[in-house]
Amino acid sequence: MAETRPLYLGPRLRRLRRELGLTQQTMADDLAISASYVALIERNQRPVTADMLLRLARTYRLDVAELAGDEGEDYARRLTVALRDPIFADIDLPALEVADLATSFPGISEALLRLHQAYTREQHALAEQRSAGPGADDSDPAREAQRFLAAHRNYFHTLDTGAEELAAEIERAGGAVAWLGAKGVRVRFLPPDVLVNSLRRFDRHNQQLLIADTLDAASRAFQVATHIAHTALRSQIKQIVREDMSALRSTQAMLLRALAGYAASAIVMPYTRFARAVEQRGYDIDALCGVFGASFEQVAHRLTTLGRPGDERVGFFFIRVDEAGNVSKRLDGAGFPFAAHGGGCPLWNVHQVFRRPGEIATQWLELPGGERFFSIARTVRGGSGSRFGAPQVLRAVALACAAEHADKLVYARGAVPVTAPATPIGVTCRLCQRGDCVARAVPPIGRDVLADDYRRTLQPYAFDES
After folding, report:
1. pLDDT higher than 70, residue 71
2. 62: left (phi over 0), alpha (psi -120 to 50) or beta
3. Strands 327-332 and 423-424, bridge-based pairing
4. Where is pLDDT greater, at 339 or 173?
5. Euclidean distance between CA atoms 431 and 288, whole angstroms
6. What tens digit of pLDDT does each residue of 118-149 get?
7. Is 293 in a helix, a strand, or coil?
8. Is 452 exposed, middle or buried (0-12, 13-18, 19+ CB in 10 A)?
């Protein structure tokens, strides 16, 4: 016969009482028990009987299953995740002790979880402050715009649906140039020097859209779509920007630019068609480039925006870096830990693809907390177009998705995410507590560095484990 365990609901009952705005005496009167008995239950000094459980459900019209759910299991799961933090790596934490703590002391469990969450938030804030450097302005427009996009998981429904409707209208008109022509705007492709070193310029007086003729077909199409986004979808873009009333003017300008690029991608690669093609092609970026006449970076960027409710696809994090390691674009479509600081770890092969330009490199990644991801990286070229002597810049872009979704990608088919050998990386050195990393640039926050007058370790730093 299965053993019946007493049911303790102290913290849950206290939370329920406070949510209902009741005192212990009022709840006691409702349940026809004494206030002291309510206090004992809330302190987990008395179990909740089946009769009391039914009385609670009937009195406050609650679901018995929800009330009687095993809160201890939830606390044990959350504590187990928190205790994977490498800062606890040298402490023996048996699973049975964690389960006992979660079951017998839910209040202490909640306190520990809150403390760890606060610690994690402060770590990220301090790392961000230090990475900005001394005297850096906290109100960095690019960083603020990035936070805004990440808060929306890089998906804007009104903008995406509006762009999809516009794309259908453009297709019926015979293409973007013909659609603009019907609106009285002529599109011309001219040398960059005629455009005064611009890639795109709109001549309002003559109602002409001027595009640099040195751009490839994908870039030309994207610049035309960007102009259409700035005009036909201007009100939708402005409405989204107005959500952040505290944004500085420079931040608003950055958001306008980012959202126009988002809308341009949605025009070139309409959501429904693109999502269907993504599934059919197994997220093969090169194949998608051919289908939609877009560049590798444009498709990779668009893959981070597939978060339409009810029609979501694999969520990706996107990053673009130059050969010096500077991050020029960071987009988060899935709420990944990389969102605020990710991209600085030299063990991530996004920094190594410069050795073999144009080739796709794949990699399994594992963060210090045990989270696993699959990454695709490749170099891309940017600049003023294909002409002799034109300034060019070589960058690397990478996409990362959760390991459990990697089997949907042609790049990882046949691999088993759980057993695939993964590279241990960190979000950034300041937040990575791995003590055995030979690639570390700076010590992590919160660790004391040991002197090396008697011993020099293989790693750049040795840490006090006391």
Report:
1. no
2. beta
3. unpaired
4. 173
5. 36
6. 787 677 666 666 555 544 455 577 778 888 88
7. coil
8. exposed
3-state secondary structure of 288: helix
> What are 400's strand-pairing partners?
317, 375
Q: Can you read off the two tokens belonging to residue 344? A: 């600085």
Model confidence at 260: pLDDT above 90: yes
DSSP calls for 385-444: -SSTT--EEEEEEEEEEEGGGGGGSTTTTT--TTTS--EE--S-GGG---TT-TT--SPP
Question: Which structure tokens are listed for 266?
Answer: 């949605």
Q: Which residues of the chain are in CATH 1.10.260.40 domains?
A: 10-104
Neighbouring CB atoms inside 10 A of 1's CB total 3
Strand residues in 272-385 grouped as ranges (E): 317-322, 327-332, 361-366, 372-383
State which H helix or E strand residue 132 sits in: helix 106-132
Mean pLDDT within 410-439: 83
Span 141-265: which CATH code?
1.10.10.2910
How far apart are the C-alpha atoms of 88 and 84, rounded to whole Å? Answer: 7
- Helices (H) and strands (E) counted in the chain, each on its own, are 17, 9
Q: Give the model's pLDDT for residue 201.
A: 86
- Candidates 335, 328, 340; CA nearest to 398 is 328
Q: Which CATH architecture has domain 10-104?
A: Orthogonal Bundle (1.10)
Alpha helices in 294-374 (DSSP H): 296-303
214 has pLDDT over 70: yes
What fold does the segment set 313-432 form as a domain?
Answer: Beta-Lactamase (3.30.450)
Q: Which residue has the tokens 């009022």?
A: 26
Note the pLDDT tens digit of each residue in 342-363.
667 889 999 999 999 999 999 9
Residues in the chain: 466
Neighbour tally for 73: CB within 10 Å: 12
Could you give the residue range(s) of every CATH 3.30.450 domain in the chain? 313-432
pLDDT bracket for residue 287 (50, 70, 90) = very high
Q: Which residue has the higher pLDDT, 68 or 51?
A: 51
